[in-house]
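Hi everyone,

Forwarding the result from last night's run.
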Amino acid sequence: MNNIQSHEYSIPYIIHPTAPGRHTSTIIFLHGRGSSGLELADELSSSKISGPPDANIFSQLPHVKWVFPTAKPRFSTIFQEEATEWFDIYSLSDPSERSELQIEGLREAVLFLRGIIDEEIEILKDPKSVFLGGISQGEATALMLLLTGGYSLGGFMGFSGWMPFAQQIQNETMTDSYRIPGYLNSVLGTDRETNGRMEYDTPILIGHGRDDAYVDSALGSQARDILQDIGHKVEWREYEDAEQEGHWFKEPEGLDDIVRFVKEKCSNLLLE
């Protein structure tokens, strides 16, 4: 088996605001397994969205900086090959199976991505101006980042993903939802001071295709339910007939939902 420890994370791909002179918000968005930050950005730039014929998601949010990190290459146990992925996983039909395989990658990803979030918060001087999101395995990774980091962000957006360690989190929620950050940081080895009791005030948008052939929509709704049980306000969106057998953003509705959500949640976003 290959050991991928020698690989370092590459510099994230960045799309700067298209409106000159004003950077009001940052969106950090994580790609799925086998992709990259650049590939996701390219795909989003050509994905359909409502508006003028030449519009895309970037032109519809002209004051937003987009940050697209890229995962490390690591060995995939189930496929027996190296792939660009945030963490190893044994089964997408049952992500809890051999969940110990996920820990190393999630620990490395969380520690790496915290640095990106912290830098953007420092630039903008306001955590509510920073948004976090991801698709597929990117959503799963971003959820771990949100729940372990003590962040109170402008918003979270996840599509076609799932909640890692779902059953364990549900067990903790039944006891005391405020124990979840400590529990997950203990599991992952990502201890971080969260200044006491967590405030679950990051608004969340979760979207999933009913006909997703790779990650069952039931896993998306399970993530929704867990987040609601913790105390988050979650907007749930279901789609049909998206590209890639339902495992992609529904065009244009899914991208329209992102634009609407960001505009609604970021009070200092200048609209044109």
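The two ends are 53 Å apart (CA to CA).

Cheers,
N.
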